[in-house]
Write a structure and sequence with these properties.
Strand content: 5-15%
Number of strands: 11
Radius of gyration: 26 Å
Structural class: alpha+beta
Number of helices: 14
Shape: elongated
């Protein structure tokens, strides 16, 4: 039997996975494709006035009723209980649409704030040479504002942002590392002063790369040994960038110098280890490694956020502070924004947001070919009682699903209030 076959409406039964042949707005169900759970749902489908549905053989728990045992025409359904159920489902669907619109507004608002922060960071870095005092003060103001939001709300949401432009990669990376470091510092119950310190250091940790010729940074073939050595000097170049900024806190400078140092001594530029690295240096290294894995380089393919967490957890036990690695996973979730996933319902989706109080139940944008892409349903797994089966590499997606979900080539995060 084919994977999906057209069947009479009287052939379906509980346990069948079906697709309705009508527009999303013309039925009361939240999805156009779903597994039938109750007889009432079957009666409700019959009341839509359709003769056929599409039956998915692979996602169904039960077979369809044999054709010889049913009549072609569905008997009209008249049931007050069914009318009440339809009304309740219509209302729930409208509530979900409003919830989705609210989430989209929240993502848009967070994205606008993220773009303002990026613009401020570009301006801040551009002033480091000519007006270092203004530059550092602007950065401190930005970090203070972020800290206020982190500390004033216990209902924060981590949103997936739009792709970075090629010229903004360093700024996106620095913003990512800064935001996640501050979130982890809050989770670790560090003081406000320490949260701001790690945020400020992370913001400037890679500015030294702006001193490296772009033809080396963008090189598509393996670097020569001298080029590798030059790249490895960028932490110290970042410190040199800040020499004129005498208001930049001394306590933040070690983390800038050490963000590629590992506790087993295998990092660079000095090969420091263990107690030679303060808590700020150890924290920023965890986050820096995670973001580099997610976004890759010209020579290293980007990994999914899910795979990046797995690599850090399994392969960096001797290199990174395990407490901070565990806190990273607990803070941003097993399936961080940007993951492409398959659900227990058989559908595919993109993780858009994670409520930091409910990391096991992220908000998922679903692939539904019957719904316009800009109106793609966004669901809360907790409310829908649907679970994640697995995380997928984007290369595993069929082209139509890939274009619909539009997975980000580079992962950037913004924090907003729920």
């Amino acid at each position: 039997m084919k994977k999906s076959v057209k069947v009479l409406i009287n052939q379906i039964q509980v346990g069948n996975f079906i697709r309705l042949p009508v527009a999303w707005k013309e039925h009361p169900f939240l999805f156009s494709s779903f597994k039938v759970k109750t007889q009432s749902q079957i009666e409700l489908i019959k009341s839509l006035g359709i003769e056929h549905v599409f039956f998915d053989t692979e996602r169904s728990d039960s077979p369809i009723i044999d054709k010889k045992d049913v009549t072609k025409k569905s008997a009209p359904v008249q049931d007050e209980g069914l009318d009440k159920l339809k009304l309740e489902m219509d209302q729930y669907k409208q509530d979900q649409i409003e919830y989705q619109n609210k989430l989209r507004r929240s993502i848009k608002k967070t994205e606008q704030q993220f773009e303002r922060s990026l613009a401020m960071m570009r301006s801040t870095v551009s002033k480091l040479g000519s007006r270092p005092l203004n530059s550092v003060n602007d950065a401190k103001d930005m970090i203070s504002t972020m800290t206020n939001m982190l500390l004033s709300s216990d209902d924060l949401v981590l949103h997936l942002m739009s792709d970075a432009k090629p010229d903004d990669l360093i700024y996106h990376h620095s913003m990512n590392v800064s935001v996640i470091c501050m979130m982890l510092a809050k989770s670790l119950e560090w003081s406000r002063e320490d949260i701001e310190l790690v945020g400020l250091g992370a913001l400037f940790h890679d500015v030294g790369k702006l001193k490296i010729p772009s033809n080396i940074l963008k090189k598509q073939v393996p670097l020569t040994k001298p080029e590798q050595n030059l790249i490895k000097q960028h932490p110290l170049m970042s410190l040199n960038f800040l020499k004129l900024a005498d208001t930049f806190p001394e306590e933040a400078k070690p983390m800038i110098a050490n963000h590629h140092e590992f506790i087993d001594g295998s990092g660079y530029p000095k090969g420091l280890k263990g107690e030679e690295l303060d808590k700020f240096s150890q924290l920023i290294t965890v986050v820096n490694e995670y973001d580099n894995l997610c976004n890759g380089t010209k020579l290293a393919k980007a990994k999914t956020p899910y795979a990046s967490l797995g690599i850090i957890y399994k392969n960096y036990k001797q290199k990174l502070n395990t407490e901070y690695v565990g806190k990273l996973i607990k803070t941003i979730g097993i399936y961080p924004p940007g993951c492409v996933i398959e659900l227990s319902s058989g559908q595919f989706g993109l993780v858009m947001s994670v409520n930091l109080n409910k990391i096991l139940f992220p908000q998922i944008m679903l692939y539904d070919p019957l719904v316009p892409k800009d109106q793609a349903p966004i669901i809360d797994l907790e409310r829908e009682e649907i679970s994640i089966v697995r995380c997928l590499p984007t290369s595993a997606l069929p082209e139509n699903i890939f274009k619909y979900l539009n997975p980000r080539e580079r992962i950037s995060y913004g924090v907003g209030q729920a």
